């Protein structure tokens, strides 16, 4: 499948209707983006059962999608599986790095990951510890 430009209106439905969706945030003026896009498009051709979306940060309608993910760096690739964001990779990748990411996302058991996250969130915070790691006295 070729890459598909995503819009704010179509994004939620697109993610819902595709078990695995990759989205690359990019801009034409960005050298790293221009280097990564052929890798991304090649992967889209090799993995026709997956959706590979694009969001050009220079197009207002597509730029708004980046707000969902707190985008700070381009290119950035986001992987969504079964409606959950499972990977967020800022910066470009080599062919092998992106192939590894695709393999890992395919293999990921989302329900187990969601359960593990819920268990971690249910654990009480350690009293007297702040984010910097210093103990309060």
Automatic annotation (TrEMBL):
Record's bilayer topology term: Single-pass membrane protein
Domain Thioredoxin: 1-107
InterPro entries according to UniProt: Thioredoxin-like_sf, Thioredoxin_domain, TMX_domain-containing
Residue ranges that the Swiss-Prot or TrEMBL entry lists as coiled coil: none
Gene3D superfamilies reported for this sequence: Glutaredoxin
One GO CC term, this protein: endomembrane system
Sorted UniProt keywords: Disulfide bond, Electron transport, Endoplasmic reticulum, Membrane, Redox-active center, Signal, Transmembrane, Transmembrane helix, Transport
Cellular compartments annotated: Endoplasmic reticulum membrane
PROSITE patterns per record: THIOREDOXIN_2
Top-level division of the source organism's lineage: Bacteria
UniProt-recorded name of the protein: Thioredoxin
Species name: Actinocatenispora rupis
